[in-house]
Design goal:
It is a single chain. The chain is built from 8 helices and 7 strands, in the order βαβαββαβββααααα. A 5-stranded parallel β-sheet has the order 3-2-1-4-5, sandwiched between helices. The chain has a two-stranded antiparallel ribbon with strand order 6-7. The chain is 46% helix and 15% strand. The protein folds into 3 domains: 99 residues, 3-Layer(aba) Sandwich (Rossmann fold), CATH 3.40.50.720; 34 residues, 2-Layer Sandwich (Double Stranded RNA Binding Domain); 62 residues, no CATH class. With 221 residues, the chain is α/β, with parallel strands linked by helices. β6 and β7 form a beta hairpin.
């Protein structure tokens, strides 16, 4: 069955993928491929790279056993067992052939700088521990996504890593200690308000912790 390549849909379904120990393929071994590979490794993926050549940093990863490298040209067999693919060569036709093969096999594929041959897009991301804020323009303007991400990095500084972790602890505490579901939901809803966010932005973490503790105790009474 031939699958027609179409422009991306007007609406994309946003999601976060768990790639831990999942097999991913990167076609290409240049600086762009290196950046993509480093990101995938940060999320725990098992990566196979197919390329004619590889950057010095990528060769170090291969030597250290963090990256599986097949030197040569892309072949459809490279897709076996793969859940996600990034095509990042400097040859448009190779990248597009990778995409077409992925479409036929219902595999997620992103072709760098070629949105019409991609069925997913890598967003600009702000990471604060368990908090991740993703920004996407559906491949239309990565530069705009980057600028928005930079604004969000200021608005949601490093202290939010602490906040998310502490809120997770309180949520688990509520799950363990509060049997009535409506009461539990009321407590969790009251925990986060504008005053709390302002305290965290000002890095007044002790005050924020005290406020959260009082709200939780008040909700239990």
């Amino acid at each position: 069955m031939n699958i027609e390549v179409r422009p991306p849909a007007a609406k994309l379904y946003p999601l976060f993928l768990n790639l831990t120990n999942q097999k991913c393929l990167v076609v290409g071994g240049g600086t762009v491929a290196e950046r993509k590979i480093l990101t995938l490794l940060d999320y725990g993926a098992q990566i196979k790279m197919v390329a004619g050549e590889a950057t010095p940093n990528l060769r170090k990863l291969v030597k250290n056993g963090r990256l599986n490298f097949r030197q040569g040209t892309y072949q459809p067999a490279d897709l076996i067992g793969v859940v996600l693919v990034i095509a990042a060569t400097n040859q448009k036709e190779i990248n597009r052939q990778v995409a077409k093969d992925c479409f036929k096999n219902n595999i997620l594929v992103n072709v760098v700088d070629d949105p019409e041959y991609s069925n997913f897009f890598v967003p600009a991301v702000v990471k604060r521990g368990f908090l991740q804020i993703a920004v996407s323009t559906t491949g239309k303007s990565p530069i705009l996504a980057k600028k928005i991400r930079e604004e969000l990095e200021i608005q949601y500084g490093p202290a939010f890593e602490w906040l998310v972790s502490f809120l997770g602890e309180i949520r688990q505490k509520a799950i363990n200690e509060v049997a009535e579901s409506d009461q539990k939901q009321a407590i969790l809803t009251r925990l986060v308000d504008l005053k709390l966010l302002q305290l965290v932005r000002e890095e007044k973490l002790e005050e924020a912790k005290e406020r959260l503790t009082l709200v939780y105790r008040g909700g239990r009474d």
